[in-house]
């Protein structure tokens, strides 16, 4: 095959994969203002993508029944029919107020992008099969590496280039132009296909894979896919909740395919040989957790993911069928990837109260990873039956049991938290001796995962009510000296003082008396009278309820039912019971709920929907603030909580305030470190379209300062937003 023909096939598969991974975040960005941020929405969307991807791979597999040129004709026809849906975007459809995401999201996405996504998803297996036919039976699997390189490019390009530089309308045109280019590339590839109608170009001649082999393919694909999602959840839950961090696990997962399926086998083979050592050592380290060094821990978790993904995908490469069976191979891989996503993304948050899927998938990787003995002495020990092998295995079990018992009973002892190095050395020695012997190795890995942190997670799960999980994350209730704390991942979600009724009614953390929202509550009566109407977006532990006064009308907007149970139903926090026993709580996405509220129905609206330092962009756009302004009274106050470890949100609010005619001031509250009421530093912005309301706030406390915007920063809209310029150093 001429070199330019090879370049043509590579360019085609790169383009298709790039478009496939570009469309998912782009459509999510378009859909967010209309569908909201509820997990049922995005779980349904994920299932739609997985179903369309599987359908595309199944279609490519079915198409292998006909001659290559007939395949090309049929596929070009599919591409042209799908082109009727250009330019890509969401169709104009008004969803009913009580729309069920499980019904409406698949319907909306299927009608909007279904044909386009289906046509593009079939690209990778089809083009590889055509390459083999055009090259006279050449190995097409290196093209799969190129396919995942294109996917990686699309993944990185969206948050770093496309989203910061383009509004969604321009993004739609860009993607549509790429689709047209893809159709032309496919037509060019079709001209390189053989004209012969010989049967060996139609039917597969190699042996069909056994059911056992197909199941092996599926499992090898399932574990890295599930681990990619589990790593993202684990990092953001137990290490650091940083914006855009989700890109790294998915990017490394895609790059692992590029390494594992590359024509040059040196890197893949080397990483696969050292993977068992990495899994054993890094698996224990990451379970131990080093919260004081979060980025080190995140680096360990990401390295572990990459090594496991390369090793298991290399195992897939070694088990690949002949090119005439490749579409069935990719269909099995796609099914495994989908099952991994369903397990980690849909099942685990319902079944587990912590990220148990993470150590379970690491353990599964230990079961599946290719292994070789490190020395011939170890090989002789584990391959020759007899009492010596059984005695060593029993000794390993005893050592682990003793270490675990000492670690639990004597946390300050020789194997305690302050002396983890010795335990690590013992585990490493056992692990090195067992690599190559599957059962002893897995037993050692399980021991390491339990010893270095798994037992703590189990203890927390056993404690009644200590931990709750939802699709939004893991909530942990901790009792400390004189206080009870609710943590959402690594972020404090609320603190209540314990003891007397007066202490339990005291607002704490970001909502203390001296905070921006606390000062705003002081002017409710003077500004709006005894019947003031208050809305709070984000319930948390219900702390703000203790500002409520008789005669006032309060309502909360909360998206996560787990938060409502913790704040209202379990009795673990008594803010609501003490201060607002019968609260009105509107469930669902706040922007959508507020959109259905009557105009002029609130006097004060506090926006506190940012949890674990994530930013729901659709709540911060010009259109969202227009919704808030419609619901508020003409002299109403809007309070926006912008405290964030990673993102400076002040320019966003300042730009929206300028465009919307709001007057805005900021309160940067910095309490004393000796504050007895557990007040936390917080940044709040107060906005009103009535300067008189802002003047009342400033008169009440001179700490309010004018909100200063950033020169040249454009307000976020439903069509355009980016966090890149706002990341803190």
> Number of helix segments?
26
Strand content: 5-15%
Major β-sheet strand ordering: 7-6-5-8-9-11-10-12
**How would a crystallographer describe the biggest sheet?**
8 strands, mixed
Tell how many strands the DSSP assignment holds.
Answer: 12
> Gyration radius, to the nearest Å?
29 Å
Question: How much helical structure, as a percent, in the residues?
Answer: 55-70%
Average pLDDT taken over every residue = 87
Based on CA inertia axes, which overall geometry fits? flat
Poorly predicted runs of 5 or more residues: 197-202
List the main descriptive attributes of the protein structure presented here.
single chain, 26 helices, 12 strands, 729 residues, eight-stranded mixed sheet, four-stranded antiparallel sheet, alpha/beta, 57% helix
Outline of this structure?
The chain has 729 residues and is of the alpha/beta class. Helix 2 packs parallel to helix 4 and helix 13 packs antiparallel against helix 17.
Q: Strands, helices and their partners?
A:
Layout: H1 3-35, H2 39-63, H3 68-82, H4 101-121, H5 123-134, H6 142-165, H7 168-190, H8 211-238, H9 247-260, H10 266-288, H11 294-318, H12 326-351, H13 357-368, H14 376-383, H15 387-409, H16 420-434, H17 438-462, E1 467-470, E2 473-480, E3 483-488, E4 491-497, H18 501-504, H19 516-522, H20 524-528, E5 533-537, E6 553-558, H21 561-569, H22 575-579, E7 584-587, H23 590-595, E8 602-607, H24 622-631, E9 632-641, H25 650-660, E10 663-669, E11 682-688, H26 691-700, E12 705-706
Parallel strand pairs: 5-6, 5-8, 6-7, 8-9
Antiparallel strand pairs: 1-2, 2-3, 3-4, 9-11, 10-11, 10-12
Helix pairs in contact: 1-4, 1-5, 1-6, 1-7, 2-4, 2-12, 3-4, 3-7, 6-9, 8-9, 8-11, 8-12, 8-13, 9-11, 10-11, 10-13, 10-16, 10-17, 13-17, 15-17, 16-17
């Amino acid at each position: 095959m001429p070199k330019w023909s090879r370049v043509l096939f590579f360019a085609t598969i790169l383009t298709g994969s790039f478009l496939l991974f570009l469309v998912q975040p782009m459509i999510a960005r378009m859909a967010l203002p209309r569908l909201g941020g509820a997990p049922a929405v995005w779980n349904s969307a994920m299932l739609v993508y997985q179903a369309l991807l599987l359908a595309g791979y199944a279609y490519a597999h079915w198409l292998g029944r006909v001659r290559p040129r007939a395949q090309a004709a049929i596929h070009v026809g599919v591409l042209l029919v799908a082109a009727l849906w250009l330019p890509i975007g969401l169709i104009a459809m008004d969803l009913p107020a009580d729309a069920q995401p499980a019904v409406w999201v698949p319907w909306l996405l299927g009608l909007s992008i279904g044909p386009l996504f289906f046509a593009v998803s079939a690209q990778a297996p089809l083009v590889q099969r055509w390459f083999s036919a055009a090259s006279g039976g050449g190995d097409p699997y290196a093209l799969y590496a190129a396919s995942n390189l294109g996917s990686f490019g699309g993944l990185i390009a969206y948050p770093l280039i496309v989203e910061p530089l383009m509004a969604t309308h321009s993004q739609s045109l860009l993607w549509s132009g790429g689709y047209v280019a893809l159709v032309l590339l496919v037509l060019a590839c079709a001209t390189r296909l053989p004209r012969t109608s010989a049967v060996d170009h139609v039917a597969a001649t190699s042996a069909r894979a056994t059911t056992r082999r197909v199941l092996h393919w599926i499992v090898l694909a399932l574990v890295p896919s599930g681990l990619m999602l589990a790593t993202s959840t684990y990092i953001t839950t137990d290490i650091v909740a940083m914006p855009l961090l989700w890109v790294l696990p998915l990017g490394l997962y895609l790059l692992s395919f590029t390494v594992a399926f590359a024509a040059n086998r040196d890197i893949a083979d080397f990483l696969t040989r050292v993977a068992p050592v990495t899994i054993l050592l890094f698996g224990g380290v990451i379970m131990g957790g080093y919260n004081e060094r979060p980025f080190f821990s995140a680096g360990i978790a990401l390295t572990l993911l990459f090594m496991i993904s390369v090793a298991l995908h290399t195992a897939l490469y070694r088990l690949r069928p002949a090119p005439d069976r490749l579409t069935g191979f990719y269909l099995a891989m796609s099914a495994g990837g989908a099952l991994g996503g369903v397990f980690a993304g849909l099942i685990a948050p319902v079944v587990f109260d912590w990220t148990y899927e993470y150590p379970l998938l690491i353990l599964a990787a230990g079961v599946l990873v290719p292994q070789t003995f490190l020395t011939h002495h170890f090989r002789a020990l584990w391959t020759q039956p007899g009492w010596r092998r059984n005695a060593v295995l029993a000794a390993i079990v005893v050592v682990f049991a003793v270490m675990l018992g000492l670690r639990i009973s004597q946390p300050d002892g020789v194997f305690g938290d302050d002396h983890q190095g010795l335990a690590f050395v013992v585990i490493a020695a056992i692990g090195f001796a067992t690599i190559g012997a599957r059962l002893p190795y897995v037993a050692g890995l399980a021991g390491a995962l339990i010893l270095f942190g798994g037992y703590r997670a189990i203890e927390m799960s056993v404690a009644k009510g200590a931990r709750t999980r939802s699709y939004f994350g893991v909530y942990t209730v901790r009792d400390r000296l004189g206080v009870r704390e609710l943590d959402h991942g690594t972020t404090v979600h609320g603190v209540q003082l314990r003891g007397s009724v007066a202490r339990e009614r005291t607002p704490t953390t970001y909502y203390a008396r001296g905070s921006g929202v606390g000062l705003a509550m002081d002017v409710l009566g003077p500004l709006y009278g005894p019947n003031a109407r208050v809305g709070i977006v984000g319930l948390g532990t219900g702390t703000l309820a203790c500002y409520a006064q008789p005669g006032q009308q309060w309502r909360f907007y909360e998206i996560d039912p787990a938060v409502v149970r913790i704040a209202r139903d379990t009795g673990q926090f008594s803010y609501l019971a003490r201060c607002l026993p019968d609260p009105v709580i509107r469930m669902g996405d706040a922007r959508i709920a507020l959109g259905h509220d009557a105009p002029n129905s609130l006097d004060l609206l506090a926006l506190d929907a940012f949890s674990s330092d994530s930013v729901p962009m659709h709540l911060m756009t010009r259109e969202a603030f227009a919704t808030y302004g419609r619901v508020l009274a003409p002299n109403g106050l809007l309070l926006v909580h912008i405290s964030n470890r990673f993102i400076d949100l002040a320019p966003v609010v300042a730009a929206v305030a300028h465009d919307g005619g709001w007057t805005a001031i900021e309160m940067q509250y910095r309490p004393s470190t000796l504050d007895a009421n557990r007040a936390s530093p917080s940044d709040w912005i107060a906005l009103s379209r009535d300067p008189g309301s802002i003047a009342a706030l400033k008169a009440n406390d001179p700490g309010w300062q004018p909100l200063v915007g950033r020169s040249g920063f454009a307000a976020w809209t439903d069509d355009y937003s980016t966090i890149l310029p706002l990341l803190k150093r």
